[in-house]
Amino acid sequence: MLSTIQAENGAPRTESMTAYFDTISSQIRQASTWEELEAIDRRLMAEIGLATMQPDFPTDLAVAVDTMFLQWSVSVNCGLISAPATGPASEVEDVEGYRFCLGRLESELHSIFHERAHRDRHMGDNPLTWYHSLLADVEERRENLAVQKRGENPAWRAEQPK
């Protein structure tokens, strides 16, 4: 399965399904400041959180994801996000500690999404698969509308603002 993810420079690129977590892992290793690690932590919370909110995401896996954030997310445990302090991440005070916890979080989340892929092969283990599927649906809807509009009015394209 192929999916589109953002490259380091923000441009989209197509990768194999496990590339999402490989990219996150690489970014964690390369991060040298608390702020860089926090940005990765918050990105994971946002992207993974949205994935778990999709109607077809298994409830037991959503609970497992939330449990991993409570245990390993420094952002959660430092009070940046409203949640009780739990697990090792609540005692992190330096970049190396943050890197360790974030690496563990990435690994645990990757395992959970492998289970998700095992249960539903068309989803793969990329948490953004649902998002890219929606984007493809939007593009298809717009293409169909354009074909319909051109069919109704051959001059439609010429009438559009430039």
Topology:
Elements: E1 2-6, E2 12-16, H1 19-30, H2 34-52, H3 59-72, H4 74-77, H5 95-119, H6 129-152, H7 156-159
Describe the structure in your own words.
This protein is mainly alpha-helical and 162 residues long. The protein has one domain (2-127). The protein is 63% helix and 6% strand. The protein is built from seven helices and two strands. It has a two-stranded antiparallel sheet with strand order 1-2. A hairpin with a 5-residue loop joins strand 1 (2-6) and strand 2. Mean pLDDT is 76; it is low at 1-16.
Distance between the termini: 37 Å
How do the SSEs run, as a string of H and E? EEHHHHHHH
Total DSSP helices: 7
Q: In this structure, how is the largest beta sheet organized? A: 2 strands, antiparallel
Question: What Rg, in angstroms, do the CA atoms define?
Answer: 20 Å
Domain count: the total is 1
Helix fraction by DSSP (H/I, runs of at least 4): 55-70%
Give me the secondary-structure category.
Answer: mainly alpha
Count of DSSP E strands?
Answer: 2
Strand content: 5-15%
Strand order of the largest sheet: 1-2
Would you tell me the overall average pLDDT?
A: 76
Low-confidence stretches: 1-16
Shape: elongated
Quick summary:
With 162 residues, this protein is mostly helical. The chain has helices spanning 19-30, 34-52, 59-72, 74-77, 95-119, 129-152, 156-159; strands at 2-6, 12-16.
